[in-house]
Design a protein that fits this description.
Elements lengths: L2 H24 L6 H8 L3 H7 L3 H25 L4 H18 L1 H7 L10 H27 L9 H21 L1 H8 L3 H16 L3
Helix pairs in contact: 1-2, 1-4, 4-5, 4-6, 4-7, 5-6, 7-8, 8-10
């Protein structure tokens, strides 16, 4: 990487880090480009050199998060030779990812609408999302081949249902902690464990 490229990446990283802090504090809707420029300690003109719009900033953050999620899921799958421990590792990796990257998690699970204004950014996010789904589908097929997973489940359809279900469980574990505790007596960790076990019961052979 040349000195100029390294400097560009440094400035882009500083802007994205500032935007992430503001998005976590205020949300994407209420955060303006002016807010991001002030937080990053850049002028608005400098900000425009690296990102043409707030949507481009959002999508850059989402893409970075999706690439990280793909890496974490791959590492979890490869961490265990047996399918069931690998499943537990995948669920744990996804839950940790939500705790660290809630905005990118929402993008991965369809919780936010991608802005088509940045067509190239959206295309890249969807490409990585597809690669994640394909790896999870292959993981299911590995489970079927090993005799653990039901053979009647269409892999990609099952992955999409898994994301929808796990996404709801993970979000509820944070937004409804007190309600869940009052009704079931489960704290967040126990609720997440029960949730991942419940989903496991839907795919394994009985």
């Amino acid at each position: 990487m040349s000195k100029k490229q390294a400097l560009t990446e440094f400035h882009r990283g500083s802007i994205l880090a500032a935007a992430e802090r503001l998005f976590a504090e205020k949300g994407t809707e209420r955060t303006t480009r002016d807010d991001i420029a002030r937080e990053a300690e850049y002028s608005k003109a400098t900000l425009y050199v690296y990102f043409q719009s707030k949507v481009e900033i959002i999508n850059a953050i989402l893409l970075s998060g999706m690439v990280l999620l793909k890496k974490k899921i791959h590492e979890a799958i490869e961490s265990q030779p047996d399918w069931l421990p690998a499943y537990d590792a995948v669920c744990a990796a996804i839950i940790r990812f939500y705790d660290d990257n809630p905005t990118a998690f929402d993008a991965a699970t369809g919780g936010i609408c991608l802005e088509e204004e940045d067509a190239k950014g959206v295309t890249e996010i969807l490409r990585v999302s597809k690669e994640i789904d394909e790896e999870l589908a292959a993981f299911l097929e590995r489970g079927t081949a090993s005799g653990v997973v039901r053979p009647d489940l269409p892999p990609m359809e099952t992955v999409l249902l898994f994301w929808a279900a796990l996404g709801g469980i993970v979000r509820a574990s944070s937004s409804r902690t007190g309600h869940i505790k009052a009704l079931s007596g489960l704290d967040r960790e126990a609720y997440l464990q029960r949730g991942s076990r419940f989903l496991l019961g839907c795919v394994v052979k009985t």
